[in-house]
Amino acid sequence: MYKKNFLLFIPFILCAVIFIFIKVQDLGVRLSDTNIYFLTGKELLSGKILYKDIFFTNFPIIPYVASFYYLVSGGSLIFYYFTAVLEITITSGLIYFLVLKESSSKLIATTTLSLYVFSFMILSTSSHQSGVFLAALFGVISYFFFTKKNYYLVGIFTALALLTKAYSLPLLASYILFYIFYDRKALIKFILGGSFTAGIILLPSLIFASHFLFQDVFAYSLTRSEGVSKTGVIYFLIQHDSIFVTLLFSSLILFKKKPFFAFFAVLSTLFFFFYKDVYYLYLNVTLPFIILSFPFILKKLEEKITLNRFMIPTVAIIFILYNFVSYFNGYNRLQIIPIDQIVSTLKESKSTTIYGVNGIAPAISYKSKIPLLNGIIDTNDNIFRKGYLNASSLTEDAIKKHSSILTIGAWYPEAGIKEDILTETVDKKLLLTNCHLLQRFPFQSEGIINSINVFSC
Question: What are phi and psi of 98, to 5 degrees?
Answer without folding.
Answer: -65, -45
